[in-house]
Amino acid sequence: METVPGRPIARLLVLVPHRDLRVPLRGYAARLFSGGLPGAHSLPPVAPLAKLRRPAAVERMRALAGSTGLYPQTFVLGCPALAPLPFAYRGLPAHVFGPQRSGPDEAFFDRVEALLPARRIAPTVLAAALTYDGQIPKSPVPPELSFRAAALAQLTLHSLPPGSHPKAGFHGHSLRWELGRLFWLPGNR
Q1: C-alpha triplet 34, 100, 172: angle, nearest 5°
Q2: Total structural domains in the chain?
Q3: What is the pLDDT of residues 130-178, one digit of tens each?
Q4: Is 2 among the domain residues?
Q5: How far apart are CA 124 and CA 152, in angstroms?
Q6: Burial (Cβ within 10 Å: 0-12, 13-18, ≥19) of residue 21
């Protein structure tokens, strides 16, 4: 899907780690940015899980977050990886870059498909940067991170008009994002 300024270009189901993880992840994004990756800081520190075809109802999000046995007790972040996002800019597909994380497994995505009109995004990567060339950038080693507390939320991305932020992103392309209500996972409060 090509970006259209002002219109939502993607609605995503995302995993939101507890805010304690923000500081080390922002530090990693700052190192990526200073290393020449312009898409660092373009997305909030979340892990895209699935593309939503339409906004999900509160009851369905609550049911998905409340499903016990579908989530690991600890989410462990590993090597940097790329995951495709469901939009493009000037014909170049967008990718999220950051540390790859373990879980959830197939049972979780079966539950997502049963409750929401969604398509899985794999691998699951905690967003540190947005890139459009599909190449894993040269980057510093991400910090060793893990987290237990996490929530599910909807993330809506909007493309901003060209030139609205000339120093931003890829050739002046910039995004605005809106993070919806958090639905905390069981036992992870």
Answers
A1: 40
A2: 1
A3: 888 777 777 777 878 888 888 999 999 887 766 655 555 555 567 788 9
A4: no
A5: 14
A6: buried
